[in-house]
Write a structure and sequence with these properties.
The structure holds two protein chains of two kinds. Chain A is α/β, with parallel strands linked by helices. Chain A is built from eleven helices and 14 strands. Chain A has two domains: 219 residues, Rossmann fold; 72 residues, Alpha-Beta Plaits (2-Layer Sandwich), CATH 3.30.70.3190. In chain A, helix 3 packs across helix 4, helix 4 packs across helix 5 and helix 8 packs across helix 11. Helix content of chain A is 38%, strand content 31%. In chain A, the strands form three sheets. Chain A has a six-stranded mixed β-sheet, sandwiched between helices. In chain A, strands 2-1-4-5 form a four-stranded antiparallel β-sheet, covered by helices on one side. A four-stranded antiparallel β-sheet of chain A has the order 12-13-11-14, covered by helices on one side. Chain B has one domain. Chain B is an all-alpha fold. Classes of the chains: A alpha/beta, B mainly alpha.
């Protein structure tokens, strides 16, 4: 649905993005991640036909964003970063205007606007001036204008920024409900959000893509080992040695020892589940096994490793 | 072309914010004050001329009331129109709404025409409300309709030119004050450019005189409808709108 090939954008001497390539399948929700100033907004602006790229090509729904811009624009809904809205307009007439500009027919418009207000939970403020709305409502009006024409592709730049936790949950479930019918590309800083909402991610740093793919694949790619946290009462050296001896265990690291109970982090290959064997070893040695649990690798850790890894590589090169 | 939704949106913005009401009120108060003074002076002069038949023969409402009124209104417009047009693009740029507007499936040209026509419609409403004054004149004196109609056509064309210049200035900056001062500066210079025509003389003097905004309006007020004047204003509007389109496009590339 979205295909981006070697997209590059210069602002004068500054390169915002360089050779960015990725693709998004229809119905997928993809998260666009990266530190501030990484080039996420630039990439999204190019996809939304707000500005042309310096080189490279991008196709949305099969149309080139530069040469067939009108066709693309008819098929996208865009929510820019700081949700620019006409503060001097009322909510319902504003959405009606957007629907009309986006080519929703006269008869259908009323129904669409009402439906979209319901979905975004803004029906109760439909007669208010947008300028008097709270940040949360504005964000939802912004989202409503993006989906009012029922576009195939949604481009959302930080859709949950500045919302309170309850509103974040609401917006998130709204975005989730868009999957399948719409293809969504969204950028965000909040990494747990991506794991909750998105199927795949594209991580961008300093204008280039540093990692992309489904979240599980990325986790396995950057963290090849599974991790367990174990708490055992027993002599630390013997415990470490004993666990290390189990096939598949890559490393054992001691965290703390309190009152004879030591906490260890065990890394093992993903193919073997070593929990049973750890229990057996402890039982044989008559150590008391107090806790044994899996520690999941979060996207956050992947992100930090990827982005930090970039930096160390660069420093090493320099 | 999706001019109509853009036009409606701009009209809404003019009328849900206080802009339109303030502009209409101030304009009508000032224009009304000018009209009152001109008319009162005319009344006085016609009473004096009752004793002087030679003077009475020279007096007529068109020359003594309508022409000065039209020229006074054009001065108010010079000051007021930059304030009507300054928000058209600058405000969108400042608040960022331009980013959404320019990613909707509308061509830049349609956005521009929609905005231009909205400002022109507001202006036409301003002018329409001043028709009250000739209405009052008709009640007391015989009015020639020809010069009145051409006078208003002239005002409409001149105002249309002001708006086009204002739209262009507004597309250059995100600062509304800069936009309005730029508009005012351009208009004022084009207003007085003809003044030096007499000293310069020759071909250049003619060129300067032809460029002058006010020079062309004088004919309309006299009741002369010259295609040369109409074409001057229409050319001017087309040029300003064309430059605006280029400026919008340049902004896109700059990002």
């Amino acid at each position: 649905m979205i295909e981006v090939q070697k997209l590059t954008k210069h602002y004068g001497p500054v390169t915002a993005i360089r050779d960015v390539s990725f693709s998004v399948a229809p119905g997928e929700i993809v998260g666009f991640l990266g530190p501030n100033g990484a080039g996420k907004t630039t990439a999204m602006r190019i996809l939304a036909c707000f500005m042309p790229a310096t080189s490279g090509a991008a196709r949305v729904a099969g149309y080139d964003v530069f040469r067939q811009s009108m066709e693309v624009r008819r098929r996208i809904g865009y929510l820019p970063e700081n949700v620019p809205l006409y503060t001097d307009m009322r909510v319902a007439p504003y959405l009606d205007f957007v629907a009309e500009v986006k080519g929703v027919g006269r008869g259908e418009r009323r129904r669409r606007v009402a439906e979209v207000m319901e979905r975004c939970l803004i029906t109760e403020v439909q007669g208010r001036l947008i300028g008097t709305l709270s940040k949360g409502y504005r964000q939802r009006v912004g989202l409503a204008q993006a989906i009012v024409s029922d576009p195939e592709v949604l481009i959302l730049d930080e859709p949950t920024i500045g919302l309170d936790p309850r509103q974040i949950t609401e917006i998130r479930s709204l975005i989730k409900s868009l999957a399948g019918r719409h293809t969504v590309i969204l950028s965000t800083h909040i990494l747990p959000e991506v794991s909750m909402v998105c199927g795949g991610v594209v991580i961008i740093n300093k204008g280039s893509i540093v990692a992309q793919g489904p979240i599980d694949t990325l986790v396995q790619q950057f963290f090849p080992t599974a991790r367990l946290e174990v708490e055992i009462v027993g002599p630390p050296a013997a415990v470490r040695h004993g666990i290390r001896g189990i096939p598949g265990v890559v490393s054992v690291e001691e965290l703390t020892v309190t009152n004879g109970a030591g906490r260890y982090v065990v890394e093992s290959s993903r193919e073997r589940d070593v929990r049973g064997e750890i229990f057996q070893v402890a039982a044989q040695q008559q150590w008391k096994l107090l806790e044994l649990r899996r520690v999941g690798t979060t996207l956050e850790e992947v992100f930090i490793r990827v982005v930090a890894g970039e930096q160390t590589a660069e420093e090493g090169g320099a | 072309m999706k001019v109509w939704p853009i036009f409606k949106k701009e009209m809404r913005l003019y009328f849900t914010s206080p802009v339109a009401y303030v502009v209409l009120t101030i304009f009508l108060v000032i224009a009304g004050w000018f009209f009152y003074n001109i008319f009162a002076f005319f009344t006085l002069a016609s009473m004096q001329s009752a004793m002087n038949p030679a003077m009475a023969r020279e007096m007529n409402v068109t020359d003594s009331v309508m022409r000065p009124l039209v020229s006074n209104i054009s001065v108010i417009l010079l000051l007021l129109m930059p304030l009507v047009t300054m928000r058209l693009f600058s405000e969108e740029r400042r608040s960022g709404t331009i980013e959404l507007l320019l990613t909707y499936p509308v061509r830049d040209g349609a956005v521009l025409v929609g905005k231009y026509l909205a400002a022109l419609a507001l202006y036409a409403l301003m002018l329409a409300l001043t028709l009250l004054y000739p209405g009052i004149v008709v009640y007391f004196a015989r009015l020639e309709w020809g010069p009145l109609v051409t006078g208003y056509v002239g005002l409409l064309l001149m105002g249309g030119t002001f708006i086009a210049v204002g739209v262009f200035a507004s597309s250059l900056t995100e600062n509304q004050i800069v936009a309005s001062i730029t508009t005012f500066g351009i208009l004022l210079i084009l207003w007085v450019i003809g003044w030096s025509a007499d000293y310069v003389g020759g071909v250049w003097g003619k060129v300067l005189q032809h460029l002058s905004l006010i020079e062309h309006n004088d004919n309309f007020a006299k009741g002369v409808l010259d295609t040369k004047d109409v074409i001057y204003y229409l050319n001017f509007i087309a040029l300003a709108l064309f430059l605006t389109l280029r400026s919008l496009e340049a902004r896109r590339w700059k990002g």
